[in-house]
Amino acid sequence: MARSSSGIIVATLTAAALAAVGFLAVQAEAAPDHPTAHASGRAAGKAKDGEQGKDKAAGSAGQEQGKAPNAVPEDSGTGLRVVYGLAQKRVWLVGSDGKATRTFEIAPSTVNPPPGSYAVTSRTPTITGSDGTPVEHVVVFHRDAAGVVFGFSAAVDGSSPKPDPAKKTGAIREQPADGRAMWEFAVNKTPVVVVP
Predict the structure, then answer these.
(1) Could you give the C-alpha distances from 182 to 97, 129, 153, 172, in angstroms and in order?
(2) Residue 89, class by beta-carbon neighbours within 10 Å (0-12 exposed, 13-18 middle, 19+ buried)?
(3) Pick from 95, 89, 174: which is nearest to 138 by CA?
């Protein structure tokens, strides 16, 4: 009798241990650090984060219908071109595939070029800017009827201009690294599109 009750106890304990192991296996499968559950949870989290990112982008000032703030402006032409957004004070270097290879903020001078399509007309490696600052990588794309020259350049010392409102100048100042990128990208006759 003692042997049979001891066998029953052992059998009961074995069954309980197997049930506990089975329960723990089910719990482990559903745990967030389990590779399968974690991967699917991460994918779902990324999708949710992406939706939240779109919502944030849509709510940001100056953005339209969830567009990224640095997206190439619509109605700025097609193909390889430089796009200059007057209101955004930003330039996009756009490849032939229509995608920006680089975008950066600029510091405009006292006069803006009218929105429209232009082309690079001249390039000068170094010169003294209209504000008396030594500049490099000068890329000119327009001269208006009053003789104001519009072009991109970078101050050798990296400074931003402090335009004198009494002077009508069309210099568009870039940071040195952006000026180098513009210089390499915008060879003579490269289209330049100015948008509002």
Answers:
(1) 18, 17, 9, 12
(2) middle
(3) 174
DSSP states along 10-48 = HHHHHHHHHHHHHHHHHHHHHSTTSHHHHHHHHHHHHHH
Supply 27's token pair.
């719990």
Helices vs. strands in the chain: H and E counts, helices first: 3, 10
Instruction: Look at residue 157 and give its three-state secondary structure.
Output: coil
* Of 185, 191, 183, 186, the residue nearest 126 (C-alpha): 183
Query: For 3-57, what is each residue's pLDDT tens digit?
Result: 555 454 444 444 444 444 444 343 434 333 333 333 333 333 333 344 333 333 3
Whether the Cβ atoms of residue 50 and residue 70 lie closer than 8 Å to each other: no
Cα distance between residue 69 and residue 181, in whole Å: 20
> 66 burial class (0-12, 13-18, 19+ CB within 10 angstroms)?
middle
- pTM for the whole thing? 0.65
